[in-house]
Amino acid sequence: MRFADVFWRAAPGTDVYLVPANWPSPRRLHWQTLLQARAIENQAYVVGCNRVGTAGDGTEHAGDSRIISPMGSCWPRRPGSRRSCWPTSTRPR
């Protein structure tokens, strides 16, 4: 997520980026912001699926999985939930 050039190189042939991740809770705002930035700058959907729970070393992971539209809006997710991805449709309207 932090290296935009990887996304830029793939952008001409990409409509949807799938991003599995292991972002810890203290950096959850970075995770959310970078997902949105990659969607907007590449004009593509970004599906981010982040780990939840506590790692063996005690590191907390908040989840915050989401789908971001090319316009930067977050698709519906359940408020307050730490669960991963919720079903949604990506059909054009």
From TrEMBL:
InterPro entries reported for this sequence: C-N_Hydrolase, C-N_Hydrolase_sf, Omega-amidase_YafV
Residue span of region Disordered: 56-93
UniProt organism field: Blastococcus brunescens
SUPFAM superfamilies in the cross-refs: Carbon-nitrogen hydrolase (SSF56317)
Keywords: Hydrolase
Taxonomic superkingdom: Bacteria
Stretches assigned to the CN hydrolase domain: 1-93
GO molecular function: hydrolase activity
Name of this chain's protein: Nitrilase-related carbon-nitrogen hydrolase
UniProt keyword Oxidoreductase, yes or no: no
